[in-house]
Every structure is written in structure tokens, then in C-alpha cells.
């Protein structure tokens, strides 16, 4: 009986020790907070806002250090995480190039299902933007202008296969359009190029175009969300134009392949706390993002669905 009692106590102790050990894990050095885009874009803005919340509320014992690696449509960031020798201190702020870049560049040897789910922080819709001086005030006028330019209409984005180029490709196919596409280093640079009249139209997130929209330099013509956006009253969706198409950018955090369960649990709790904070919920509302929390299993299922969707979308690009 004494032996059985001792075993029972030992088993109970083991049952308590595993969660306790996971709760006790702490980063031992600054956290490499990789951003798979250049400075100024939506992913960069979100990463730096998250960093500020964590710092303001003293949520980590080691700082989050933003690290922009947007080269190769995010390939630089994916390779960085895939080859890190310290997965417990390396996390990534993602956008949809997390799905599209490995599809377009299979030679990278990146399997996103080996990455560690941390947090889905929300999804970000897109809008079609033109300069205020373009004389274009609605989507129909824009289509006519692109057709009249006969291939000389100049658009801009963050690179072929990136989110904006996928949306432009859909519009080109759906409305029989031809245009020139110029790549820039990040969504912030794209928005600035439109405001500076270097290009004629963009597909940007609300956060990326906010300053230029508030100053009146650019105007939205169309949104690629399921419903009209409160930030742009009266601006129609593409669905209202008879095309069953919407497109959202994921705003998520993932860990490097090989991250320990203890570290994953730490980051999952950290970003859940950030997600539930008054600051992040206010950011979602102010920047027209939609909240979309998911647990790790739901994130992996979402990744698989988005890989399937982006494989179809990319196969349709001209």
C-alpha cells in the first residue's frame, strides 16, 4: 500500500510539474521579432505597435527587437526563421506572403507547417486607391481609364506574388485590363509613391494609406472586404460589382521551426494577453482590422486553407 501511495504521489507530482515548468520558461535574451516586410508597411506598423504595448505594460522580461527582412517577397524572413539556431528566441510577424512566397519559390525548401503557431491577431482588408488629382471618382471610371491607357497605366505594389499583385491580377482578369506594375520595398513606400504621383493606383491596407487619406491626397474607389467598411462610407465592395471576391491580409505571429513547447506556451500566452489588451483592441478599431483569434490547431488548419486558396489565385496570374 505504501508503495502504491508513493507511486500515486509521484504521478501527481509529475502531472503538476509539466505545466509549472511551461509557465516558468522565460526568454534568456532579447527576442528576435522578425518582420517579413520593409519599414513603413502594415506588418511593420503592427510589429512596432505590439512591441510598444509589450514594453508599456512590462509584459516580457526581455525586449522584442523588430528586425525587418522583406527581401524576396518575404523569402529572406522565411529563410532566417527556417535556419535559426535559436528557435526559442525567434518569432515572425507574417502577412499573406507567408503562404504565397513558398508556393512561388519552392526552391526555398520552406514548409510553413513546420513553423510554430503563436497567435492570429486579426485580418486586414484592402482598398483600391488613386490620387485625388486623377479625376477618377469611382471604380467604373477607373476601369475606363486603365483600358484607355492601353497597357501604359502604371500601378505599384510590394512585388509579384505579393498580396496587392494578386488583387491586381484578379482585377486584370475579371475586367480584361492591362497595366504596368512597379514593385516597391514595403506598403509604406507604395502609398508614398501614389501620393507623390509616381504611380497611378495602388492596392493598400487602410493603415498604410491612412496619413495620405487623412490629408486628402488619395481616395479609395473600392474595397475588397465582404462588406463595406465603416472607415470609407459609401465605397462599394467588389462583391457589389458582381464579383464574388474578397481578400484579407493575415496579421499573425508564428514561431520558428523547432521551438520548444515551453517557449511556444510562453509566446502564446504573451500574445493572447496583447490581443485582449485595451491597446490592441483599440488599434484594431482605429486601423479597420477585424479581430480573428485562433488557437494553434485552428491556425494550422487556416494555413492549409490559405495555401490551397493562394495556389489557385497564383495559378490564375498572368
UniProtKB/TrEMBL annotation:
Tell me what this protein is called: Tricarboxylate transport protein TctC
The record lists the organism as: Roseovarius mucosus DSM 17069
Q: Which UniProt keywords apply?
A: Signal
The source's domain of life comes to: Bacteria
Family per UniProt?
A: Belongs to the UPF0065 (bug) family.
Classification via SUPFAM superfamilies: Periplasmic binding protein-like II
The stretch of residues making up the signal peptide is: 1-23
Amino acid at each position: 500500500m505504501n508503495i502504491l501511495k508513493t507511486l500515486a504521489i509521484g504521478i501527481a507530482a509529475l502531472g503538476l510539474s509539466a505545466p509549472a515548468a511551461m509557465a516558468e520558461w522565460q526568454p534568456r535574451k532579447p527576442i528576435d521579432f522578425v518582420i517579413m516586410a520593409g519599414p513603413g508597411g502594415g506588418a511593420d506598423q503592427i510589429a512596432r505597435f505590439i512591441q510598444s504595448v509589450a514594453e508599456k505594460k512590462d509584459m516580457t522580461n526581455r525586449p522584442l527587437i523588430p528586425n525587418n527582412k522583406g527581401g524576396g517577397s518575404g523569402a529572406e524572413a522565411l529563410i532566417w526563421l527556417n535556419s535559426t539556431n535559436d528557435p526559442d528566441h525567434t518569432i515572425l510577424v507574417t502577412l499573406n506572403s507567408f503562404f504565397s512566397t513558398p508556393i512561388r519559390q519552392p526552391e526555398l525548401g520552406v514548409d510553413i507547417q513546420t513553423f510554430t503557431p503563436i497567435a492570429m491577431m486579426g485580418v486586414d482588408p484592402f482598398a483600391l486607391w488613386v490620387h485625388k488629382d486623377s479625376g477618377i471618382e469611382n471604380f467604373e471610371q477607373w476601369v475606363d481609364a486603365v483600358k484607355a491607357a492601353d497597357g501604359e497605366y502604371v500601378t505599384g505594389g510590394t512585388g509579384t506574388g505579393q498580396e496587392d499583385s494578386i488583387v491586381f491580377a484578379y482585377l486584370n482578369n475579371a475586367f480584361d485590363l492591362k497595366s504596368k506594375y512597379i514593385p516597391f520595398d514595403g506598403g509604406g513606400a507604395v502609398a508614398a509613391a501614389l501620393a507623390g504621383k509616381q504611380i497611378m493606383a495602388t492596392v493598400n491596407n487602410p493603415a498604410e494609406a491612412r496619413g495620405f487619406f487623412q490629408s486628402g491626397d488619395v481616395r479609395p474607389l473600392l474595397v475588397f472586404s465582404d462588406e463595406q467598411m465603416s472607415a470609407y462610407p459609401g465605397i462599394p465592395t467588389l462583391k457589389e460589382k458582381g464579383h464574388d471576391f474578397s481578400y484579407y491580409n493575415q496579421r499573425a505571429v508564428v514561431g520558428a521551426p523547432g521551438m520548444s513547447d515551453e517557449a511556444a506556451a510562453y509566446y502564446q500566452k504573451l500574445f493572447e494577453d496583447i490581443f485582449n489588451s485595451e491597446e490592441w483592441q483599440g488599434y484594431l478599431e482605429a486601423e479597420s482590422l477585424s479581430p480573428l483569434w485562433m488557437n494553434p490547431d485552428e491556425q494550422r488548419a487556416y494555413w492549409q486553407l490559405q495555401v490551397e486558396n493562394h495556389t489557385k489565385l497564383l495559378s490564375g496570374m498572368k
